[in-house]
Design brief:
Length: about 220
């Protein structure tokens, strides 16, 4: 798959996949988008002393890095499981400017990418990562997740990933009242989430996006 490095409007990088016409993040600001959707409307809304998070689509590791930094700042232990079918190469990762923008050691960012797949890897004393290299269509887990970051490519490009069937498998790993956040506000996505057992709410989107979706397990 050909992938290109792109500079977004807030100065942070994203990746563009020409054959799909899809970006990994908003061109209006990758960092800004991840902070708004997954940290502000996700992580910051959970009151638990420690958190179990599931991410669909590890990609650049931006969501994981932001979560790691905030978990360390808040002293809130996190177990972070993430699924990815098409991992980036070390050459692609080396070019991404997230550690510079976030003023953190590049070695910390690298440790997320270099962590072995399929096992629990402590990245810091309070942040443990488990990366699964697989298609989310195969999703299953023995864990219960307090929070889900659903960050696959868009439903217009990968409709098979945004189905009630996939959401139901995820919902089965969440307790009543737990949260799933995603950038997509598409009607069909919301209907599929409802069918899978979530109550669906709207929230304002980051710049360039009117709304995002917050789903609460019922
Ligand atoms: C919109 S990007 C976001 C990635 C990541 N959260 C980030 O901040 O860079 C979508 C990600 O989903 C991954 N992906 C696409 N299809 C997948 C599938 N069937 N199973 C698992 N991951 C998939 C892509 O490779 C890509 O990394």
């Amino acid at each position: 798959m050909i992938r290109q490095l792109i500079l977004t409007e807030d100065g942070s990088h994203t990746i563009f996949v020409p054959e799909m016409g899809e970006h990994y993040h908003s061109v209006h600001g990758a960092m800004q988008e991840s902070l708004h959707i997954f940290i502000q409307h996700g992580f910051n809304q959970i009151q638990a002393k420690e958190l179990s998070i599931l991410e669909i689509g590890f990609g650049t590791g931006l969501n994981a890095l932001l979560t790691l930094l905030i978990s360390n700042a808040d002293n809130k232990p996190v177990i972070y499981e993430t699924w990815e079918k098409f991992p980036l190469s070390s050459e692609e990762i080396r070019k991404l400017n997230y550690p510079e923008i976030l003023k953190c050691e590049r070695s910390l960012y690298n440790s997320l990418h270099q962590a072995a797949w399929e096992i629990n890897v402590p990245i810091t004393p309070i942040f443990t990562l488990r990366k699964i290299e697989s298609d989310i269509l195969n999703f299953h887990s023995d864990r219960i997740f307090d929070l889900v970051y659903f960050d696959a490519f868009g439903p217009d490009f990968q409709p098979e990933l945004w189905t009630a069937e996939v959401f139901s498998k995820i919902a089965a790993c969440q307790r009543k009242g737990s949260r799933l956040v995603t950038y997509s506000a598409k009607g069909q996505v919301r209907r599929n989430l409802r069918e899978a057992g979530y109550m669906v709410e709207k929230a304002p989107g980051p710049p360039g996006k009117r709304e995002i979706t917050i789903a609460i397990k019922t």
